[in-house]
Amino acid sequence: MNSGKNILITGAAGQLGVELTARLREQHGAEKVIATDIRNTDSVSKSGPFEELDVMDKQRMSKLIDKYDVGSIYHLAAILSAKGETHIALTWKLNMNGLLHVLDLAGEKKASASSRHIRIFWPSSIGVFGPDIPRERTPQNSPLNPTTVYGITKVAGEQWCAYYHRRFGVDVRSVRYPGLIGNKSEPGGGTTDYAVDMLRSAGNGKTFTCPLKSGTRLPMMYMEDAIKAALNLMSVPPGRISIRTSYNISAMSFSPEELLSAIRQHINGFDVRYEPDERDKIASSWPDSIDDTDARRDWDWKPACDLPGMVREMLKQ
Ligand code: AKB
Known about the structure:
This protein is α/β, with parallel strands linked by helices. It has helices at 15-28, 42-45, 58-67, 81-84, 88-111, 149-168, 194-203, 223-235, 256-264, 278-284, 293-299, 307-316; strands spanning 2-3, 6-10, 33-37, 50-52, 70-75, 116-117, 119-121, 124-125, 171-173, 175-177, 179-181, 208-210, 218-222, 247-248, 252-254, 272-274. The strands form five sheets. It has a six-stranded parallel beta sheet, with helices on both faces. Helix 2 links the parallel strand 3 (33-37) and strand 4. The chain starts with a strand and ends with a helix.
């Protein structure tokens, strides 16, 4: 068996990708972490190896895996929920084909003469859930009836991960991320992006126009915890992983009005105007909060940052 030495990240210039690339380069050395994205971005191409990669190009992905002796892939490239609704066919194509290429290549290279073993991290999302779930502490095994094309790709993706693990022994691991909040990179195209945008407006002293109703609660997570979840899950021995679709994970939950009052602890005069749009419909079909008992049991998942801590960190930076 040959476990490749290096790490490849797709979608490295995205919101999670920028911060995960930086952390992996700190931990393993810049030359061991190959950032890829559809376009070259200084945020990831200046600090280490970078290759342009469209995840729909399986041949090029295969060449890069061999060229860099890749043993782990963080496959992050995807179109998110709000943008997906205006690019339906592309979202299906990119989100599904990208994942299938990664899974297929891991299976093919494991079975080939070089017997290369590749461990994969793929983020799923609370977007797998739909309006028929218990909204409080949504259990791991709830019905998966999403209302968005993004959610459909995540449900199908979870099933493909379990299938490739069962059928070909591909070591793929996944979490259902809530909305992610960080300040080193821009979110793009998500329903939960409003939270980062509201914090930015507060920092810039501007009134924020909120696309969600004041009371629409959603599960959220500070970027530090999101990175910790990915790295912890990727580091545990395969035998500890009992869920090969995707793990529920949770950190905090809040509505726009709860975020507003947490921001007002620091910036008294900050104001929000509510103009709910299509994003509120998506958010209203998602959980209020998540039950992450299985992740806590299997790989000791525990978030560190709550709402006041997240707001403090975001406004500081
Ligand atoms: C989105 O809002 O689309 C994402 C997600 C929760 O998956 N942030």
